[in-house]
Write a structure and sequence with these properties.
The chain is mainly α. It is built from twelve helices and no strands.
């Protein structure tokens, strides 16, 4: 049995456990479906996960969309993102882990580090108040905007062309430690995809290898952290269920129907809107009581 197949089987088992917690909690709180913004939530789920599969990332786009459409309370955004997109990202990972060959030890250790970081981060974030969450979301959007600009312009690590399919020695230690931090930061809305790709490129790996590592990391850490957010009740239940279902649709469209698009100019627009949204989060944080 190949390492990729073993990872997928473990991932599916973890996802089933998460799904049980998720579904039971949803049925216990069916009254939460009374005030759902169906149209905006459905569109966010499909489009964010469609573009996520093509490399733009779903966290920043969804956070921005939530803010402008008022379809999710600010304090519930981190938990909602990590809970709602857990299963769609698992679908992405199952496809990409099988497509690209990565050195097994590098893949397993970096994924494990992100899971531990995510559980650590979720434990802290689930107890934060509205003011701190708004500040964290604003900072996350600014950080992602800077990374996206680097990606679009080829500045920094995104200008590096790596060839390795795995890490050893000090580089492996750095990769594990940084991915632990990225897993923790993901709990406040800092998407892992772009920073993880930058990390892989800086350490000399090829861009293709970054995909299964970043998608595998998210796929494992999101069900693990999602269980924590479900237990704490710190997520928008109704929106999460809708986003999960529509997110899977978006992923499947990107994987098997529309597999590529010219995203350069759209990514610039998304980046600009992210910065505007970050400013709004900072302004709202000043109005909120600590």
């Amino acid at each position: 049995m190949s390492p990729a197949l073993i990872l997928i089987l473990v991932l599916l088992a973890l996802t089933v456990v998460f799904g049980v917690y998720f579904v039971i909690d949803i049925f216990k709180h069916k009254e939460d479906f009374k005030n759902v913004k169906w149209i905006s939530t459905v569109l966010i789920g499909v489009l964010a996960n469609f573009f996520d599969t093509l490399g733009i990332g779903s966290f920043a786009t969804s956070t921005t969309a939530f803010k402008f459409t008022k379809s999710c309370p600010d304090d519930l955004i981190p938990g909602t993102l990590n809970t709602a997109y857990a299963i769609p990202v698992v679908v992405e990972a199952v496809v990409f882990i099988q497509k690209v060959e990565v050195e097994p030890l590098t893949l397993i250790l970096m994924i494990a580090a992100s899971i531990i970081g995510a559980v650590f981060g979720a434990t802290i974030v689930s107890k934060w108040n509205l003011k701190y969450i708004r500040i964290a979301l604003g900072v996350a959007l600014v950080c992602l905007a800077v990374i996206m600009i680097g990606k679009l312009t080829g500045i920094g690590p995104f200008g590096i062309v790596g060839t390795a399919n795995g890490l050893t020695g000090v580089k492996l230690v750095i990769g594990v430690v940084v991915n632990f931090a990225l897993g923790a930061f993901m709990m406040v809305g800092l998407g892992l995809y772009a920073p993880c790709m930058a990390l892989c490129l800086l350490l000399g790996m090829s861009a293709d290898v970054a995909f299964p590592i970043m998608m595998g990391s998210c796929a494992f850490l999101m069900p693990a952290s999602g269980i924590k957010f479900v237990k704490e009740g710190k997520y928008n239940r109704a929106s999460s269920l809708i986003l999960t279902i529509t997110g899977i649709v978006g992923v499947l469209i990107a994987c098997f129907i529309i597999t590529s698009l010219p995203l350069y100019y759209l990514t610039w627009v998304v980046t600009a809107v992210m910065i505007i949204c970050a400013v709004i989060f900072f302004k709202d944080a000043n109005k909120a009581k600590a």
